Amino acid sequence: MIKAVLFDIDNTLYGYDAAHAMAWEALCAYVQEHLHMDRETFTRRHREAMDIVKERLGVDCAALHDRCLRYQILLEKHGLPLHHALTMSELYWDTLIRSAEPTPGIMECLPILKKAGYILGIGTDMTLEYQLKKLTRLQMLPYFDFLVTSEEVNGEKPDRKLFLTCAQKAGVAPEECLFIGDSLKKDVLGAKNAGMEALWFAPPPEQAAMHPETETIYHYDHLTKKLKCLDFSRKTC
Fold first, then answer.
1. How far apart (Å, rounded) are the C-alpha atoms in residues 7 and 124?
2. Which three-class secondary structure string do you get for 61-122?
3. Rg (Cα) of the chain, in Å, rounded?
4. Which of 116, 133, 164, 234 has its CA 20 to 30 A from that of 5?
């Protein structure tokens, strides 16, 4: 029986892609005005800085998402003033969080799950600070009983530690958890490898067709039905 429903955040509880696009536009405008760097050059240098961060860290961890670190490395490499790093990071995150919009149906779904007695949790990559800011902006934080970030467990999804820590915080067995996320590898397969049930949220139809054995959900209106299926039949409904 499912007792805890766990969610990814980005592109699951809100539309990350659209919010990121707005933040990237603001960032490109800033570097063009203050660093005299065109979009193409900035995009290339940003990618190079990301590669350097990955090489230096050597492992998947929350620091990979530290934009201030990326900008620091970019500025150092090209002999540009370092004070821009903090301004660029704040501009990006402030714009993204301000632009974030809840995924259709989720604000109606969360109180229904809460009233039904499910434990609600978050399992997400990234640092706690910005994920809390997102959930606060989206007015979702009061619905959740706990969060687990990759920063907390020192490992990114699909690392089993993140999922098992979710179950531990929920106070239930992994098989009593349902994890919902947009990434097949990170969310769905990661959760299943930890012994949880999983739903793939809004995958591209062509990708979903390649994995017919994986249960999907395209709108939160259908979640309660899926929960009943898992509880009573353990089969796709």
1. 8
2. CHHHHCHHHHHHHHHHHCCCCCCHHHHHHHHHHHHHHHHCCECCCHHHHHHHHHHCCCEEEE
3. 19
4. 133
Phi, psi of 216 (to 5 degrees): -125, 165
List all residues 6 or more positions away from 223 whose beta carbon is below 8 Å from its beta carbon.
5, 109, 113, 180, 199, 217
Q: Residue 59 phi/psi, 5° resolution?
A: -140, 160
pTM of the model: 0.94
Per-residue pLDDT 10s for the chain (237 aa) are 999 999 999 999 999 999 999 999 999 999 999 999 999 999 999 999 999 999 999 888 999 999 999 999 999 999 999 999 999 999 999 999 999 999 999 999 999 999 999 999 999 999 999 999 999 999 999 999 999 999 999 999 999 999 999 999 999 999 999 999 999 999 999 999 999 999 999 999 999 999 999 999 999 998 988 887 776 544 445
Q: What is the CATH number of the domain that holds 162?
A: 3.40.50.1000
Which of these three, 55, 81, 99, is where a domain ends?
A: 99
The answer to whether residues 126 and 65 touch, using CB atoms and an 8 Å cutoff, is: yes
